[in-house]
Amino acid sequence: MPTLWLTGTAVASRTETALLTGTATVSATPSPLIIGTATVDRTVLTAWGAQIRRTATRVYLGEDAEDLLRVQGDVSVDEQANSPVATASFTLSDPRCAYHATDSIATGGLPVAIRCRVSTALAEADTTVFRGLTEASQNGGAYVPTATIQCAGDGEEWLEEKGCLSLAAFAGYDRLDILKAFAESVGIDPARITGGDGSAEVYQALDLSGLSTWELVRRFAELEDWYVRNDGTGLEILDAEDVVGSDAAPVYAFEPSKYFAVTETPPSRPVTRLVLSTVGIPEEILTGGTEETTAEIVGGTLADGTAWETTTQTTTVNGVVIRQRVEEWRDAAIPGVTPSDVAWRLWKLTETETTWGTVTVNGISLRTARIDEQRTTVTEWYSAPCRSASGYVWSDGTRHLDNAATWQVTDDRITTYTYAAAPSCLLESKAVNVGGWYSEIVASGQVYDDGYERADNSYAWIAADAAQPYQRITETYSEETGATANAVQSAIVTSRWYTPAGLAVETWGEAEGSTTRWSTVPGSGVIVEATSEFFDDGSTKYASKSYAGTLPGLTRAAADIPQYRTVPLVLTATADSDSPATSPHTETIWGAESMADLVTVARRRFRDAQSPRVTISHPALPLLRLLDVVTVTDPTRELDEAQGYVESIRLTLNASNTGALRQETTVVLPLPQFAPEVPL
C-alpha cells in the first residue's frame, strides 16, 4: 500500500473536520506515517490518501450557503505563493446571472465556499478548499443566462489596505516589530502575523506609505530570507531554513503511484550576476566608533606681501564633529613698543569643543542631534589697553599694559541649548555667554588715551561663566498652531555694556535686539513676516511684508535619536551555476542596511531564478498547502526523493456526475548551492 507521511510540525485539517491534537500515531489502510508533533484528522488523511475513492464538489453561495445545483463543468481553485489571495472560478447557468434579475449574482460581492467530498470504504471527509467573494461577471446564453463566476479568496485585506507609518532612526524595532505595527495601523490584529522571530533591527529612519501589509512583508522577506503564506487566519512567516534549508522536513512524498504526469521546467537564462547597492551605516558606528581627525590647509599672500596660512583640524566620532582647531599662521612681527622680528608664527588659534546629548543603543553611547553645550576659545597675541598714566605706547601709537603682546585668550564663548520635550523636540532657546577684555565707561574714573574715563586701570578679563559676563546673546524660538492661524517666531537679544540715550556713562543690559514673526492662515499659502528691532541709542524700527510660501522650519532634535552617517554599499555577486552568463542586473535594494542584507537578497534571487520546477498532475490533495516541503520521485527524470517546496496549487474539481478531483502542484527544487547556510 502507498504511504502518506508527514514529518516535523504539521497541520493537516480543515475547519469542518474533527481534530485529534497532540503527538499522534495513526494506523490505517493506506497507512499514513507521522513523525513529530502534529494536529491530524485521521479520517481526512485516510480518505484523501486513498487510491480508490468517491469524490464530489459542491459550491455554496450567499449568506445562507445555498447549494448551487446548476454549476457546469469544472470548478477551479488557484493558489500562488506570490499572493495571499486564492482565486476560484466556476460556470453557472441560472436566471440570477442576469444583472437586473432579482437577487442578481452578476453584481458580485457574495460569499462563496467550495467544498470537496471524498469517501472510501474505510473513511470519508468533507473539506472546504476555498472561501471568498464573487466578482462581477458578464453572462451569455439564449434561454438561461450563463456566467463564469470569478471569485477572490479571503485575504484581500492584506493587499487592499494601504498603510502609513513613520519610524525614527534607532527606534529599537526589528523588522517583525515594524511589520506588526504597520498591520495594526491599517486595522489588522498583529497577532495574526506569526513567525519571523529574530529578524534584524532597523537602525535608519523608515517612512512607509502607500504600501499594503503584503507588499511590506514581501520586501522584508527578501532581506530576511522569509517565506510567507496566508494560512487561512493570518500570515505565517517561515524561515528559509524550514523551507529550503537543513531544517526542512517533508510532509508528503510524490511517488509514481500517486500522480498522473510530471512536467519539468528548467530555468531559462536566469540572472547569473547581480550588482546590488544600498546605503548603510558603517559597523564602527554601532560599536561606539573612534576619533578621526582630518585637516584642511589654505594659504596665500596678502597685498603687502605678508604670507598667511590657515589650517583647520576637525575631529569627529562616527561622523559627528566634537572638536575643531583653526590655526592662522602669518609671516609677521609681534606688536609692541619695539615689534619683534618678522617670522612665520602661529598668529591666532580658535578652538571649539562641542558636547552632544547621548543615547544608549545596544549598550553603546551614541551622540544625538542635540547639542548640550558648545565652547569656542580664541587665543592670539594681545595686551590689554590701559589708562594714560600706565603702560607702554606701542609703535602703532596705542597704549597697552605690557611693552609687547603675549599669547593669551581674547575671546571665550559658552553656548547652551534648551529643547522642548517630545514629541515637539523644538530648540526653544540658545544662550551665548561671552568672555572678553573690557572696562566700562564711568562718570569719574581712569582716563584713557581716547578721552574716556573707565572704571579700571586697564581692561580686565570678564569671564564667560561669570554672573554678568562680558556679553550675553539670547536667541528664543516658539511656534503656535490654531484653527485660524499658524505662526513661528524667533527673537535675539544682546546684553552688554552700552551707553543709553541721554546718559554719559555705560550700563550693562539689553542693548539691542530683534523679533521676527511669520504667520499664515491655514490653507491660504500667504505668509506675513513682521519684524521689530530696538537699538542701544533708544531708537526702534518695524516692518511687515507678505509673500506666497510656507512657514520657516524651526530646529528640532530628539533626545533619543543618535546622529549617524551612511556610506554606499555595493555587492557584486556571481551565481555558482552552469547557466549561461547573463548581463549584470543592477538594482538599489529597498530597506537593506548592510552587506549581510545584500548577500541575503542575492542568495534568495539566485535560488528563485536558478532552481528548476516540476509541475505534477495528480489526484486532488487539498490538505497540501503552499510552501509545504515535499519530495518528488520520478525515475524518468532521475528524480529520487528530490526535496522542494510547493509554489502553486491548481485544483480542477468537476461538479458534474463524474465528480473528478484533479490537482496540479508546482514544486520548486532549490539548488543546494543557494541554501541559506551556504555562503555566496
Describe the structure.
There is one protein chain. By secondary structure, the chain is mostly beta strands. The chain is built from six helices and 43 strands. Strands 5, 6, 7, 8, 9, 10, 11, 12, 18, 19, 40, 41, 42 and 43 form a 14-stranded mixed beta sheet that branches. Helix 3 packs antiparallel against helix 4. It is elongated, with a radius of gyration of 40 Å.
Describe the global form: elongated
Low-confidence stretches: 1-38
Helices, by number, come to: 6
Mean of residue pLDDT? 90
- Structural class given helices, strands, pairing? mainly beta
Nearest-angstrom radius of gyration?
Answer: 40 Å
Q: How would you characterize the largest beta sheet?
A: 14 strands, mixed
Q: Can you give the helix content as a percent range?
A: under 10%
Strand content: over 45%
DSSP strand tally: 43
